[in-house]
């Protein structure tokens, strides 16, 4: 973010006297990314449960802003979530409950995000 171009002159937007930076990312994704960076308990490694929307937001923005440790962690969450190591893992109560919560639309978001970051 330090490499963002700086506005010319004094007509830059300010909030509480400080210069504001406009990002073209969704507020929810930016919120998740910043929480993951500044609160180490927010986005723990697998097997900690994490909402799919948080995983996808962090995946997209960690790829965009080259935050490798968060990018790997998000990919690990997706990999563990969708690619079971065994049939027993796939049939586990936790996996079945998760599949019930994730509709086909969610799976399309996963595929789209994986394509965006070159994971597919």
Give a description of the structure.
- Residues 1-20 are annotated as: Disordered.
- There is one protein chain.
- The protein has one domain.
- The mean pLDDT is 84.
- A hairpin with a 2-residue loop joins strand 1 (14-15) and strand 2 (18-19).
- With 120 residues, the protein is mostly helical.
- Strands 1-2 form a two-stranded antiparallel sheet.
- Helix content is 55%, strand content 3%.
What secondary-structure arrangement, pairings included, does this model have?
Blueprint: E1 14-15, E2 18-19, H1 27-38, H2 52-64, H3 68-82, H4 87-90, H5 93-101, H6 104-116
Antiparallel strand pairs: 1-2
Helix pairs in contact: 1-2, 2-3, 2-6
Question: What descriptive keywords fit this protein?
Answer:
two-stranded antiparallel ribbon, 120 residues, elongated
Number of helices: 6
Strand order of the largest sheet: 1-2
Question: What proportion of the residues form beta strands (DSSP E)?
Answer: under 5%
* Biggest pleated-sheet summary: 2 strands, antiparallel
The helix/strand order is EEHHHHHH
Spans of 5+ residues with little confidence (pLDDT < 50)?
none
Summed up, the domain count is 1
Distance between the termini: 27 Å
Shape: elongated
Question: Can I get a quick summary?
Answer:
The protein is built from six helices and two strands; from the N terminus they run ββαααααα. It is mostly helical.
């Amino acid at each position: 973010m330090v490499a963002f171009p700086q506005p010319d002159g004094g007509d830059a937007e300010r909030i509480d006297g400080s210069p504001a930076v406009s990002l073209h990312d969704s507020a929810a994704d930016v919120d998740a990314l910043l929480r993951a960076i500044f609160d180490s308990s927010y986005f723990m490694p697998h097997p900690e449960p994490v909402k799919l929307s948080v995983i996808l937001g962090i995946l997209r923005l960690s790829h965009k802003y080259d935050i490798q440790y968060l990018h790997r962690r998000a990919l690990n969450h997706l990999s563990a979530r969708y690619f079971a190591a065994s049939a027993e893992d796939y049939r586990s109560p936790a996996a079945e409950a998760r599949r019930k919560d994730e509709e086909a639309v969610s799976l399309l978001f996963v595929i789209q995000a994986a394509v965006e970051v070159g994971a597919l």
